[in-house]
Design a protein that fits this description.
- It is a single chain.
- The protein is of the alpha/beta class and about 230 residues long.
- The protein has one domain: Rossmann fold (3-Layer(aba) Sandwich).
- Helix content is about 40%, strand content about 20%.
- It has a 7-stranded mixed sheet, sandwiched between helices.
- Strand 1, helix 4 and strand 2 form a beta-alpha-beta unit.
- It binds S-adenosylmethionine (SAM).
- The site of S-adenosylmethionine has 22 residues, from helix 3, helix 4 and helix 6.
Length: about 230
């Protein structure tokens, strides 16, 4: 009945189309981003993938909060810690000229470390690590920085190739078969396979030929995820 009315009514169709087109794409993307993290968390639950959640590019902590809430709602058997890495008050910085991008500009995406920390003040299993990845984690092992020895999910949401590669290399020693790698903005830099998070993943796979990934889900505006199928 409703379908019949909608089928014959341009007024109703215009109303729906106006509503859908008025929602900003970044809002849609951020909603399905949390949905992607939820899928990955559920996968790790079903497959009994142990270990922590790592997020590189936290900004104000919304997706990290989504990961934490998803985990809490699942009443998981696994003990998981949540590690969020970001420069926070500094935003983006180009350590490599190739990272230049009209939307991801130096100094943009600054957020308050203190305010973000407050968002997680009740959660003992959340740790925020402040600083540029290039300075804080490059060449280090996760055990030195946060004590983690397993990574169930790594979410790379720092957009630029340089820091994304540092992040992937950092977690490499603690990835497991079944771990999930999520990459945001995979098609940025006009989908150049040498730039952005796509470029970082390609370089990471060249540097670590033993790592085999299988595509899992695509989500939102340019997000993609993989399951580690061999190490
Ligand atoms: C798109 S935002 C992250 C959004 C967040 N995951 C969310 O959905 O709520 C990208 C973040 O990456 C961080 N970032 C980019 N390059 C970085 C680097 N080299 N070191 C540390 N943080 C970096 C920026 O500071 C920014 O907060």
């Amino acid at each position: 009945m409703l379908f019949e009315i909608a089928k014959n009514s341009h007024f109703l169709q215009n109303l729906v189309v106006k509503f859908v087109s008025s929602v900003h794409p970044s809002i849609e993307h951020n909603l399905v981003k949390v949905g992607m993290i939820k899928k990955a968390m559920f996968h790790c639950e079903l497959e009994e993938i142990e270990g922590s959640y790592f997020e590189f590019g936290v900004y104000e902590g919304t997706s990290l909060y989504g990961a934490l809430k998803t985990y809490q709602k699942l009443k998981s058997k696994q003990e998981r810690n949540f590690y969020g890495f970001d420069s926070f008050d500094e935003g983006f910085k180009y350590f490599d000229d190739a990272d230049h991008h009209p939307y991801f500009k130096e100094g943009d995406f600054k957020s308050s470390y203190e305010k973000t920390l407050k968002r997680f003040k009740k959660s003992k299993n959340v740790k925020l690590i402040k600083g540029y990845f290039e300075e804080v984690v490059s060449g280090k092992r996760p055990s030195e920085i946060c004590g983690a020895d397993r990574c169930a999910i790594v979410f790379i949401d720092c957009d630029l190739m340089g820091p994304a590669l540092v992040a992937l290399s950092f977690v490499r020693p603690i990835l497991e078969r079944g771990s999930v790698i999520i990459l945001d903005d995979y098609w940025a830099y006009k989908a150049n396979s040498d730039l952005g998070t796509r470029g970082a993943l390609n370089k990471f796979l060249q540097d670590n030929p033993e790592v085999e990934l299988t595509e899992y889900y695509k989500y939102g505006h340019g997000g993609i995820s993989f399951i580690v199928t061999n190490l």
